[in-house]
Here is the input.
Amino acid sequence: MVKSIGILGVGQAGGNIAEIASTMGFQTALINTNQRDGIVNTRVDKKFFLPGFNGAGQNRSIGIKAVKDNHREITEFVKRSFKNIKLLLVAFSTDGGTGSGMSPLLIDLLVDQLPGVIIGAIAILPDRNVLAGNRINAAECIEEISKIEAISSVFLVDNDQMRKLNPQSSKHQIYLSSNYQVMEAISGVLQVTKMSSLYGNFDETDLFNILNTRGVTIISSATITDAKTTSDVSSKIQQSWASTIFCPVESTGVIRAGLIYNGPEKMSKLINVPSIFEKVGEPLELFEGTYISESDPAIITILAGLPFPTRRLLALEDFLEKNKERLQNLVNKEHTQKYESKIAWASHLKARSPERQAGSISAKISKYKS
Here is the structure.
C-alpha cells in the first residue's frame, strides 16, 4: 500500500533519509546540486539534479541561488513525483550547503504550490562538536524555517542525542541510526492508523490533525511493563520524551498530541492524562487510541506545536559568541594577509642572459689577424 506521506530529500543527508523511506513504502524523491551524491541513493527513483551546479561546498547562498534560478522546474518536479499524498516532509541537514540553503525557500514555495498537501520538515541538527561554519549554517537555517508561516510539523532530528547514547559510534553509524529511527517513528504511527479497536481508534485523520500543527513535533515510545502506578507510567512517558532521536522537550506548550496504547487491558488503567502532561501542559486537543493485546504494554506519544528548543540551539551558538573576536579576526586575515620580502635589493644578483647586439661581419673579421 502506498503511504499517504511523501519524503522529499534535499542534499546528501536528505537523500539518505529518502533512501531509507523508500524501503518502508513511502513515496520519495530527491533534489541535489551534486549528481554524485544523489546517484548512490539507488532506491529513490525520482531525482532532480540542478543544472549548472557541482555541489554547494557548505555555502548556503549557493543552495538558495539554486532554488531561485530553478524554482519553476523544481516545483513541477515535486508535483510530478508525489501522487495523492496528504503530507510532504522535506528532509535535509541544517548545517550543510545544499539542504540547508535550499530547503527553507523551497518549503516556503511548496506551501503555496501544493494546495491541499500539508508541508512539514525533517531537519537534522548537527552534534555540538561541529565547526563554526556548520554552526552558522544550522542557526541561519532553523531561523528561516521557524519564520515560515504556513509550515506544519518540524521534526528536529538531533545527532547530539545519538552521540550521547552511543559515544563510541562513528559519524556514519550515528547518521544511519538517526535516519532509520526517524523514519521508523513516522512509519510506526502511520501503521497504527490501519489498526482496528473496540476501545477507540487512532485513525489517519487524527494523525494529520496533529501533524498539521505548526511548530516542533516529536514522536516517542515508552514500554511500561514494570510500571506499578499511574506515576510510574507518567514518569516513563516523560523520560521517553528526553531520550528520543529528536531534540528533547525543553518547555511547556504542546498544542496537539496523540496517545496510543497497545497492551493488556489491566495496564491501560494506569494511564492518567493530566499526570502525563503535567510538566509540559495539557494540549489543546488530544487524540487517543487504545489497542488491547497480549504484547508488552507500550505507549506511543506524539507532541506537536512545541516551541523551538532554545537551549539546544543556543548550545550551537554559544561557541560562536565565545569565539567571536577570534573568528572575526580569521575572516579579516583572509582578506588582508600578505608577505613582504626584505631582500628586494638582491634581485639584481640573479644570473641574467647577456644581451646580444648584432654587429657587422666586416668589423668582426677585422679584429682577427691572419
Q: What stands out?
A: The chain has 14 helices and ten strands. The chain has two domains: 1-192, 199-325. Strands lie at 5-10, 27-32, 47-49, 87-93, 118-125, 153-158, 215-223, 256-263, 285-292, 298-306. The mean pLDDT is 91.
